[in-house]
Design brief:
Number of helices: 22
Structural class: alpha+beta
Distance between the termini: 39 Å
Helix content: 25-40%
Strand order of the largest sheet: 1-3-4-2-5-6
Oligomer: single chain
Length: 692
């Protein structure tokens, strides 16, 4: 069967995949540096970094035959080069054009990666705008490349003639550096003669596609200093042999010594000292391989738990070596799991970096003045979570701009600064990552929210609702308070999807708002979706896992510490503080469980949204590292449960969602509805219908 580019074993397919992975990193770097440039925080190195990103994308595109990508990035590159050479100023209009070009470049890269076709006129307007900017500054007298031997290049009066010997290494081409671009840059400095040495080119059957065989000798007549000639090669100096020497100067003064980088040494001279290459500090690994490793570690953790479970049944005095080996295995499995999870962890910076551009573009569309302030960008979270964060965050940022932040005149009228502010932050709390999106806008109008919900029949006309319950109306499907439907908002599609997406990651979303002052949305997400340390507890005949990061302490209270509250259940008096009690047997309708807190164990747990609560269980069975399995994927979502796991004895245990437990228990105390235990639901007979 013939090889295709799509075949995983075909080298070109691997190179192509690596190229697009690098493109993603280059586009992120491009966006970040353009953002710095747009707010006036960029310097010369920022411009160089922007240029390198576009240049690297273009170089790889040429190798794979992506003509549209090469053509667009070429014009983009020319504009950046003119800015670097200070021929064009990075004004606000030019910077906005660069940002638009960056977006278009990302779209072209995506189309090339996915094999999609773009409209024939895609990017035409941006290319035309860039060419017009270049045309305004172009020099019609710029000399053309003079093809021919070096000896035929004649020096111009009053200028210096340089001879440049240039031989690229294979590494230079592999890094997508294009020799032709260097020729163009040299041509801008003056009259240029070019001679190509092709004597090293082998026959076709001996040619390596990635190797470099050609070398060039340039003759440059220019009025610039030698350092300016050297700067043309500054990005490739480590990947080539380069020698720059003066042939004739303006005056017959002392000859200028040649500037040589890795020059070819004559045979009679001592061998050049070879400096060892710096060891590679990172490697690129296919994410599928990492996922496979995570799954294998998960299976190892389960096997280790089962072995530990059986080890507890053995007398330690008879099998000391075996018990010691089991303990060593447990420690090794933990360290391995932590190392693997660290491989999957990535900073949220990659997501946060996209938000300033969204704010800038949408603010311009809405006629508002808004800035975004970010914090905690280096907070790390599982790669799977990061990949699914972009859409929810984007929608909430857009929502804050459209619904939250007022127009400049309205803000001034209410005593606020003309410019609104959106704060986007990330931090680790209680073993989870907490992302907050806050704005200083108008906040939620609860009267309007409630009236709208009642008009649509979503809430009874005589319903008595708390402020929190009214705020949560925005998460209902098809609910919107926008008076005008636009392409930004107003169709009632959005916040319910955001909530659903966050919940699918095992997370929660809450909102706090004060009318006239602003709103704060909080996303709480697990740091990893794979493994967690938990406390195994029993309630009746059922077994649950409480995340260890949420547990503060456990105790057996005295009767004097428990106080009933009418309509609210019980509270626990603990060191001068009253904590609400949550009964798991009541939350999940479990019979034969301890109902008296004085006969059971109360676990004091804390979540970022529900605060501290006391959870009544029958017994503590011990700590265990467990592999998290999605309950929603394998069965269906159950309120108060964030996932499931397999214990060492082979039984299924449910992982508790601490923040939801208090609300569930309070609702049961108030309404007393009938509940079916989630364990019973999962253990339905085989003939019973299952969820699709």
């Amino acid at each position: 069967m013939p090889m295709t580019a799509e075949s995983e074993n075909y080298p070109l397919a691997q190179f192509r995949k690596t190229y697009f992975e690098e493109c993603a990193e280059l586009l992120d770097a491009l966006q970040t540096n353009l953002d710095l440039l747009s707010i006036g925080s960029g310097d010369e190195e920022t411009l160089h970094a922007i240029f390198r990103s576009v240049h690297s994308i273009k170089g790889g595109a040429g190798a794979f035959g992506f003509g549209e990508l090469v053509a667009f990035s070429h014009v983009f590159e020319n504009l950046l080069d003119a800015i670097r050479e200070q021929k064009i100023s990075a004004t606000r209009d030019v910077t906005q054009l660069l940002l638009r070009a960056s977006d278009a470049l990302a779209d072209i890269v995506s189309a090339a990666r996915d094999g999609h076709s773009l409209p024939a006129d895609f990017g035409y307007e941006i290319v035309t705008a860039m060419e017009e900017v270049l045309l305004d500054d172009s020099d019609p007298r710029a000399p053309e490349v003079q093809a021919g031997p070096v000896s035929e290049a004649v020096g111009l009066s009053g200028e210096t003639r340089y001879r440049i010997a240039f031989t690229p290494h294979t590494e230079m081409l592999q890094k997508a550096n294009e020799p032709l671009l260097l020729v163009r840059q040299l041509r801008k400095l003056g009259g240029l003669g070019v001679e190509v040495d092709s004597t090293r080119v082998p026959t076709l059957d001996g040619m390596e596609p990635e190797a470099a065989y050609l070398s060039w000798t340039f003759t440059l007549d220019t009025g610039v200093q030698q350092s300016a000639v050297y700067e043309v090669f500054e990005f490739v100096e480590d990947d080539c042999e380069l020698k720059i020497e003066v042939v004739s100067a303006k005056a017959p003064a002392t000859a200028v010594p040649s500037l040589a980088i890795n020059p070819a040494q004559p045979a009679t001279e001592k061998p050049a000292v070879v400096v060892a290459a710096t060891p590679t500090q990172s490697i690129r690994v296919d994410v599928d391989k990492v996922d496979r490793l995570v799954n294998l570690v998960g299976e190892l953790v389960i096997a280790q738990a089962m072995l530990t479970e059986q080890g507890t049944l053995l007398p330690t005095d008879q099998y000391p070596a075996l018990i010691q080996g089991i303990e060593a295995l447990a420690q090794g499995a933990r360290e391995l799991q932590e190392s693997v999870m660290a491989i999957r962890a990535q900073p949220v910076k990659s997501v946060f970096a996209r938000m300033p551009r969204i704010v800038r573009d949408l603010a311009a569309t809405l006629g508002k003045e808004v800035r975004i302030v970010t914090a905690g960008e280096m907070t790390e979270i599982d790669k799977t979570v990061i990949e699914q964060l972009n859409d929810p965050l984007t929608h909430m940022i857009r929502n804050a701009l459209d619904h939250g932040i007022e127009g400049p005149d309205d803000r001034v009228a209410t005593g606020k600064p003309r410019q609104g502010t959106i704060h986007l932050s990330a931090a680790q709390r209680s073993g989870r990552i907490v992302i907050e999106i806050a704005d200083d806008g108008r906040g939620l109008n609860r009267e309007k929210l409630l009236a709208k919900a009642q008009d649509r029949g979503l809430v009874a006309a005589d319903a008595k609702m708390s402020d929190e319950e009214i705020d949560n109306l925005i998460f209902l499907p098809a609910f919107s308070t926008a008076d005008v439907v636009s392409n930004i908002s107003g169709r009632g599609v959005g916040m319910d999807v955001v909530k659903r997406n966050v919940q699918s990651l095992g997370g929660r979303i809450t909102v706090q708002s004060r009318f006239g002052a602003g709103s704060r949305f909080t996303l709480s997400l697990p740091l990893t979706l794979a493994v967690l340390d938990g406390m195994v507890v029993s309630v009746g005949k059922e077994t649950f896992i409480i995340p260890l990061t949420a547990i503060i302490e456990s105790l057996r209270p005295q009767s004097a510490d428990i106080h009933p509250v009418v309509g609210r259940g019980q509270v626990l008096a603990l060191r001068g503080e009253y904590l609400p009690m949550t009964h798991l047997h009541r939350c999940f309708a479990i019979s034969d469980a301890v109902t008296d807190p004085c006969r059971g164990i109360v676990i004091i747990a804390e979540s970022e949204s529900a605060g501290r609560i006391g959870i009544l269980v029958d017994e503590l069975l011990g700590q265990q590292q467990v592999v998290v399995k999605s309950l929603e994927t394998n069965y269906e979502s159950v309120d108060g449960i964030s996932g499931a796991t397999i214990l060492g004895n082979g039984r299924v245990a449910l992982i508790l969602d601490i923040a939801r437990l208090r609300e569930i228990d309070s609702r049961i105390v108030t309404e007393r509805p009938q509940f079916i235990s989630p364990i019973d639901m999962i253990s339905l007979p085989e003939e019973a219908p299952h969820a699709a």
